[in-house]
Amino acid sequence: MGRNSAIKHFDATPEGQPMELADSQQGRQPIVRELLRSPWIRCASDLLRREDTWSTKRVEKPVEVVWDAERQRPVAFLREERTWRIDAVIQTWTVERSWWNSRRHVSRHFWRVVARGGVYDLAFDRVRNAWFLLGIQD
User: Fold this and answer.
1) Where do the domains of the chain lie?
2) Could you state, in chain order, the average pLDDT of each consecutive group of 10 residues for the chain (138 residues)?
């Protein structure tokens, strides 16, 4: 066999994976959640859009977050004097950098969430003990 034998023998329909992309009860939401877990879409919130004048690349805006202690996750956040209820948590991750340098130390836990049809990146900064809204993807 040639160099492409692995490609030719790849099973494109793994066991347990449904052939239907969207079922009638849940719609497309599971597909969107799965796509947003992909590493190649991680930096989409860093894109600067002119209509998002409140958000610029790499600038965080402080927000108030309602925390659900029982489920250990945010359930709402306050933005533009309105409360935005979080419909789903898509992804969480932690960034820990420069822990040896107190001036440059970054310790944040991120939540990518769905609220009002948009996808938002929230972060709790453990060094400053504060919440930030870092990005929006419509």
Assistant:
1) 21-47+58-137
2) 67 64 61 64 47 47 93 91 91 90 89 86 93 80
